[in-house]
Task: inverse folding
């Protein structure tokens, strides 16, 4: 099939993904995050609605990804980042773009991105390859890894291995927009999570809980979640664990930036940051931007 035009200009075209072909080029002169946004819009239009619902996929606009990347402190010379449920890699790209603009930035960057959807994995690999090139231009050595597997299975396996398992990965920062879908009480995922002490009924809280366990002391968690975990008995174990393990952070500057991101994206991404809130007439499902630091 012919590649459709995206956002007008003929040069801004992205071809259909064919497993036997490389991804068709986008205009190389575009700024990196504008290119990512074009890819996101194009991929979103191609996804099967049923499959998207099954996996609980929600794709993050580039403006929101950039906002969240700006929350990362990144104070260490070697910076290990987890992008769980990475999609096409918008968060990884935004973070690399952000770090490259800073005067003080890591010397070594390791990006580990989990994505279970085979359709999205080639796009993710392409994005991470571009991340490496962008990082190199700012003298940052960037090592990337695409984990084409279920994050719940992989996360549970890493936690079961214990802190002294040489195969276990730990991270200085996790940035994610986790999938949103209920987990059946009799499902394999629920039993796996229970085996490492995580009791929850939704994928988004499962992803966040696993991520917390994989952070180093003082590690950063930056995540978009629904606000449903804030009340009700179903999420009580998750709330208690989160508040025990993490120190929540908010700032008026970030809240103002969140509102600007809503205005720019125009896609109904309402945010609240640990208690502060914003709203928009376009919003259908209120969400939260969680920024927190693992207790030492």
Result:
């Amino acid at each position: 099939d012919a590649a459709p035009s995206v956002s007008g200009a003929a040069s801004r075209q992205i071809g259909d993904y064919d497993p036997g072909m490389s991804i068709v080029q986008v205009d190389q002169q575009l700024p990196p995050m504008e290119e990512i946004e074009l890819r996101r819009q194009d991929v979103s239009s191609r996804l099967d609605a049923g499959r998207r619902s099954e996996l609980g996929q929600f794709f993050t606009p580039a403006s929101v990804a950039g906002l969240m990347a700006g929350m990362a402190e990144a104070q260490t010379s070697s910076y290990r980042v987890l992008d769980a449920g990475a999609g096409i890699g918008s968060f990884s790209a935004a973070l690399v773009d952000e770090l490259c603009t800073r005067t003080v930035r890591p010397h070594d960057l390791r990006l580990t991105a989990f994505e279970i959807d085979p359709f999205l994995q080639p796009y993710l690999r392409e994005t991470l390859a571009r991340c490496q090139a962008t990082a190199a231009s700012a003298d940052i050595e960037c090592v990337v890894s695409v984990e084409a597997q279920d994050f719940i299975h992989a996360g549970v396996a890493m936690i079961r291995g214990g802190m002294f398992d040489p195969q276990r990965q730990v991270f200085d920062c996790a940035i994610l927009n986790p999938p949103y879908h209920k987990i059946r009480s009799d499902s394999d995922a629920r039993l796996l999570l229970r085996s490492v002490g995580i009791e929850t009924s939704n994928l988004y809280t499962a992803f966040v809980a696993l991520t917390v366990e994989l952070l180093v002391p003082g590690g950063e968690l930056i995540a978009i979640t629904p606000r449903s975990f804030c009340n009700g008995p179903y999420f009580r174990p998750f709330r208690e664990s989160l508040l025990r393990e993490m120190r929540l952070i908010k700032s008026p500057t970030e809240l103002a930036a969140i509102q600007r991101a809503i205005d720019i994206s125009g896609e109904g991404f309402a945010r609240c940051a640990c208690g502060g809130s914003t709203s928009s007439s376009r919003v259908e499902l209120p969400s939260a931007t969680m920024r927190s630091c693992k207790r030492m």
